[in-house]
Amino acid sequence: MRAQPPTRTDLRRQELLAELTTLFLREGFSVFSLAMLAERLHCSKTTLYLVAGSKEQIVVATVRHYFRTAAERIETLVAASDDPVRRLRGYLLGVSAELKPASEAFYADLTAFAPADAVYQENTVHAARRVRELVDEGVAAGVLRPAHAAFVGAAVTQVMTAIQRGDIAAATGLNHADAYRELTDLVLNGLGTGT
Q: Backbone phi, then psi, for 147, in 5-degree steps?
């Protein structure tokens, strides 16, 4: 059975999600009412309801869209190489690059709004699991120093969670993207690959 092509409504919803993502990453989301969002996106509130039924649901849908599309782009980078070291480096640097456009206002709003923060936490857990898989792959191929992949994964999870909570920024002054870049260096150097 062939998938149905997207409808105009589907396409418009995707357009809105992309525009909302750009806006929220730049300015955060707590300052906006539905009327303000409609004005900024040059559409009606009814059109915004194509995304979700309330401002809170629109925020969650947009945050979920941001992390889903970021994950897809990162996995495309990973899939472009057969070399386990490049795949691991590509994954971690891809996370850093995807987080780079997000402003401090966006991160503050994520932390303050539990449903959006939960989406970030889900993605952090997924990212940590993915790093563990990529470490396993590199160790099995003999290109990474034999390491206890579950330990590396658990340690990476702790650091990623600390980045997500803002603990790393508070302790170091590093933003989320730069913290992931430092984590990349730490993991790759720790596993004997260098950067």
A: -140, 160
- Separation CA 195–CA 167 (nearest Å): 25
Between residues 51 and 193, which one has the greater pLDDT?
Answer: 51
Domain map (residue ranges) of the chain:
59-190
Helical segments of the chain, H only: 8-27, 34-40, 45-48, 55-79, 84-99, 104-112, 114-140, 149-165, 167-172, 176-190
Each residue of 90-143: pLDDT tens digit? 999 998 889 889 998 998 999 899 999 999 989 988 988 898 899 889 988 988
pTM (2 d.p.): 0.87
Question: In CATH, what is the architecture of 59-190?
Answer: Orthogonal Bundle (1.10)
The answer for residues whose C-beta is within 8 angstroms of residue 178's C-beta and 6 or more apart is 96
Residue type, 156: V
Q: How far apart are CA 156 and CA 131, in angstroms?
A: 8
Q: How far apart are CA 189 and CA 195, in angstroms?
A: 7
Q: Report yes or no: 49 and 13 within 8 Å, Cβ to Cβ.
A: no
Asked whether residue 193 carries a pLDDT value surpassing 60, the answer given is no
Cβ-based neighbours of 84, under 8 Å, separated by 6 or more: 134, 137, 138, 141, 143, 144
